[in-house]
Amino acid sequence: MGLSKFLLYVLQRLFFSITIIIMIMILIFILINVAHGDPAELLAGEAASPQYIETIRKAYGLDKPPLERMIIYIYNLLKGDWGYSITYQAPVIIVILQRLPQTLLLVGVSLIIAIFIGIGVGIISASKPNSLLDMTLNTLILGAYSLPVFWLGLILIMILSLQIPLFPTGGIIDVSVAISGNIIDKILNILWHMVLPIFTLSIIYMATYARVTRSVVMDVMKSNFIKAAIARGVPYKRILYVYALKNALIPVIAVAGAQFGLVVAGAVLTETVYSWPGIGTLLVQAVNYRDYPLVIGVLILVGISVAISNFVADLLMARIDPRIKSRLMG
């Protein structure tokens, strides 16, 4: 019975995620059609020839009624036809997929580091509320949370790349290593280039997780089941790092799901500052060159990534949150 309820829950969340993706596609279709000018010219790009514009018009059914056009547009997107990038002379989805691994690497590693450090700092801060340690950590957390990403990135480059040349100013790998280096040298060189961008993103994300963890742990420590555990003589560290931490993971997972979905929003400034060749810099280049099909493709990617990451977060919370778990397995 419990398994069937959980499977039904998974299918419901999956249906909801697919619905969100389709709604995003519909919204983008509406924005394209209400924009000033010919939608075919917008999709083709400013440098497109009249013949190519006419090809786009026929391929996307822009000479048909609006409802039929929308169905054709969504069908093309679902089958992987996201348009053609004039700037890169390649299909939009190919261009995006070439840049996606770099962004996933940067944001994924940053989030993992930020989650572990943020949870640790939040628990330490909440373990001694209103103490000097708590006030110091809370001040540092609020300061890190308020730091502009681009400002922190520029400061780190100025200090650790220019004044003290410990790390490269940008890029993902040195040209010489990329051409003639072996696989170990390439990996080490990429890791060397990742230090500053990951530190920049991790600081911002870490502050968020630390604030959430501190708030949840402090609330949990006031609850009746914690008081009962203390009365039974359960060690304080076990209460803090097992009982309270398990409750703190629920909102942390929810926040992580939302943040990981916004890979572009979180990486645009960081990738631009450090010249990291990911989705963020791709979006900036597409806007600068007015490569509208590529801009639209990146926006679709953002919508899909948000839907997928929230779907995964919902499944994780269903396994961790006892309230959801009891409802599904009961």
Textual characterization of the structure:
With 330 residues, this protein is mostly helical. The protein has 2 domains: 2-90; 94-329, MetI-like fold (Orthogonal Bundle). 80% of the residues lie in helices and 1% in strands. It has helices at 2-34, 39-44, 50-59, 66-78, 92-127, 132-146, 149-163, 175-180, 183-220, 224-231, 236-261, 263-274, 279-288, 292-320, 322-329; strands spanning 84-85, 90-91. Strands 1-2 form a two-stranded antiparallel ribbon. α5 (92-127) packs antiparallel against α6 (132-146) and α7 packs across α9 (183-220). It is globular.
Tally of domains: 2
Q: What is the CATH level 1 assignment of the largest domain? A: Mainly Alpha
The CATH architecture of the largest domain is Orthogonal Bundle
CATH superfamily of the largest domain: MetI-like
The biggest beta sheet is recorded as:
2 strands, antiparallel
Level of helix content?
A: over 70%
Secondary structure: number of strands? 2
- Calculate the mean pLDDT score and round it: 81
Overall 3D form:
globular
Structural class: mainly alpha
